[in-house]
């Protein structure tokens, strides 16, 4: 029973690790660079993002624990469902360095479009295993849809500056 508690906490906390590191490494770019970007009127206020990501990472982490538990740990049956989870988590964690760190809006857009596809695939894979785990991913997919639209708009509305050109 004590060990299961540790697994539950570990799986639930794991997504927060990359999210926190992404914020920590890129935090200085937010006031300097991000605030100067042209953004649509429907862009959520900056204060919403840490709250939203805390809720979303907690939900997805716990959902991954449910899948892991239902499949009996790291069994051969878990390779695809947890592999999809790991892949989408890697793309999720890669987005801030592309967007905030490298200011590479095109790579951030490619990343988030791939992320959307992986999360949809993950949810299809998880549905037959655990419907609650799948439902816990719905708010994440909704937020990703908004974040994808926002990334597209920011990419379109903020053309990349070519090196050596000044306006």
TrEMBL record:
InterPro entries: TspO/MBR-related_sf, TspO_MBR. It comes from the Eukaryota. It is a multi-pass membrane protein. It holds the Pfam family TspO_MBR. The chain crosses the membrane at residues 6-26, 47-66, 107-129, 135-155. Keywords: Membrane, Transmembrane, Transmembrane helix. GO terms for cellular component: mitochondrial outer membrane. It is found in: Membrane. Its main location: membrane. Belongs to the TspO/BZRP family. This is TSPO protein. It comes from Ciconia maguari. The gene is Tspo_1.
